[in-house]
Amino acid sequence: MCGIMGYIGKNDAKQVILNGLAKQEYRGYDSAGLALRCGESIKSVKIVGRVSELKKLVEESDLGETAPVSGIGHTRWATHGGVTVTNAHPHESVDGNIVLLHNGIIENAREIRDKLEAEGIVFISDTDTESACQLLARLYRDCGDVLSAMTKLCASITGAFALVILFRDRPGEIWCARRGSPLVVAHSDGASLCASDPTALLDYTHDLFFMEEGEIARLTEDGCGFFGFDGEPREKQSIFLQWDSVMADKGHYEHFMRKEIDEQPDVLRFTIEAHTDITSVDMEKTLKLPPDLMRGISRVQFVACGTSYYAAAVACNLMESLDDTLNVRADVSSEYRYRNIGRGDDTLAIFISQSGETADTLSAARIAKSKGVHCIAITNVRGSTLDREVDNSLLSLAGPEIGVAATKTFTAQVALLSILVLQLLKLRGALSATDEARLIGGLRSIPAKQQAVLSRENDIKALAEKYSDSKGFFFIGRRESVPLTLEGALKLKEIAYLPSEAYAAGEMKHGPIAMLDEKLTVVAIVPQNDLREKMLSNVAECRARNAPIILLATDGDEGIKSFANDVIFAPATEKELFPLLGVVPLQLFAYHVAKTLGRDIDMPRNLAKSVTVE
Q1: What is the SS3 assignment for 442?
Q2: Would the pTM count as exceeding 0.85?
Q3: Among this protein's residues, is 609 annotated catalytic?
Q4: Known catalytic residue: 194?
């Protein structure tokens, strides 16, 4: 998703904006630009390419003798209109008074454009954004008041948007508006800032204002003022975000993804210590649900997208295995929105989103709330839209994740969801003391076991290099391992761009086995549990079709080597918790395949970290 950065203060705005855009590069983009107030004029610089290239162009441009003290910047991911300098943001109105950038999609842009062109306004770009820019210029010209023009603009455009605007005749101000797309605002030491992502602001302050749906902001050196779309002033409290700006730095690592893989044992420790004691679950301080609510629940729905959905599937399996009286299911957010999900007090829906801004998950949560469903949110960003809109919100403790491909947030989500499942079943009277102690003990042992897997990286790297010329991969597993196969395949798709499919192993003979040959590698997840023999039968079927076989197996299971070309071993753990351990070698394998192939690992093509439009 596009990245936004705005600054007004006494420092050199161009450096602040360029640094802020660089911290949001992981969101994905194809072009970049900024507009700086230079004396009485506003000058724009735009390029197709990276922020580093924009920085060089800015340094070569004539921006006046004094450093600009305000400006706005943008990284664009093309939706309406191709990847060109003309379509890059910011956009300028024909009268030269408005400079505007936009994150999101304006759905009625064609209608607005047709009307304005009929009035004689000439459009320069192919973007939906320019419709908002030219319309705002006309509204402001007609009424002469910025707030009035902003409210009329927001009432006139449909779709999702975060708008950041400079008015040439209002030199001490930056204006913002938000509906659907995230925008964060801050004030510190005589400067105000805005950004799409809080990580861009952490060098300046940790006290942040997360803009609400239907909100307008006016930024000046003296502070931030907020208004509703009706123009009425709003009182707003900042939220302190306990993230360190160092957490969003690569340090000595080549890639953020590799750094974040290494951070998983600590993330898991933080999560476990926050919600358990030695042998039991304890979420009384963080979970706001009435203690007796779970006794009346008959249906539990886990709802998420992408990697978060696979984490939800792990939790779904765990809950089903411990309580056979509940109707439990995991749903993709975009499909959940179209289902008849039911009404009333007998349903609990749990929504998971790393960013807390995922458009489909937010819409799904709003639908559930409107139907009286009890809701819990799990997100990694305190103050995000999902965190604010769902009353019962739990924070995963992963810290900022910069790599587009999720790694440590998967671990944080699976751990937190597993603990939540135990807490909910305990409230329901459906969790035995034996299972509680067994699973909490298992969780507490996994960080050290993850560390043991990380110490075997060289072996995994060698396998990745060996199999990087495969034409594709099949991941197969059963029961608890099925979500793991999905996540392992997704990682290879995301960062290595290789065809990778995941199947419940019993489905192979229902079609996929026809694809197998000597160039299609099978990755079979075969932990030492009650399904080991069934899995080995599936592996034998694959090997009979000459497919190379990599097994992910349990330490000490030496007899399994005869079934495969290669084996990756991981320590033993409770069968329900194996996804927390098995995901680490799959992440490392995908990382090193992608690195061998020379891929852009932290910013893979066509992908964005947060999908904030449908």
Answers
A1: helix
A2: no
A3: yes
A4: no
